[in-house]
Amino acid sequence: MRLTRVLFYASKLPKDFSNFPKRYVERAMEQIEFKTEKEPQYQDKVIKREVFTYGLHRPWTREFLEANLPGKYVEQDVVEPIKEWTIYRGDKVQIMKGKDKGKQGVVNYVVVERNWVTVEGLNCEYKYMGGFRGIPKSMVKEEKPLLVTTEVALLDPSDNKPTKVVWRYTDEGEEVRVSVRTGRIIPIPDEAEETYDYKNKKYYSEQPKDTKAKDVEEITYKPRLLTFEQEIMEECGLKEDNVPVKTFWY
After folding, report:
1. Which pLDDT band holds residue 3 (cuts at 50, 70, 90)?
2. Is residue 177 within 8 Å of 159, Cβ to Cβ?
């Protein structure tokens, strides 16, 4: 698979409601296990934690930090690699295994790191919450994750039956999901783009404090083969007359 195709599918993975930039997520997860002292005799070396365990909580939350506390040993999650992701938030699926086998529902949460989805109102467990500090004890229903590879199947909108899907190109060059059984195009639901900022990206209107899209797209940097100092001298009209000292490499 070429790099361009890998980046294409990475950009199509379901977004989280938070819509945080990638650099913020990486900074929230970062844990330094070892770092050399700032002394001349030491070489700069930084060892960062690379193995995390993922659950239903996102990497920037307190619950994720508690599951991956510094110094705590966690086993690496065994995840079947998926080259082409096909199920998004808002898709209608059918459960293929478990106590709710055969039931249909809507995907409301996606955890790409574990190949998990949760289906609204299905595959639930009950647990107690509260009962301390004056908070009344109550029972709540919690949706448990399902594997997209074996435990759920996307529904074909033509007959509302489960089907496998593949990615194909239309005559206009747009890549779409196609049902293997009927050949029908299955559009990606609008809920897949929904975040705290907008319901749908194409209908988002710029806010007064937003950076304008035209300003972001404007090219303001022109690469040149000059150093920063040479560019300053050129703008100020200064000319360098000194001859640099010759250096020799052996």
Report:
1. very low
2. no
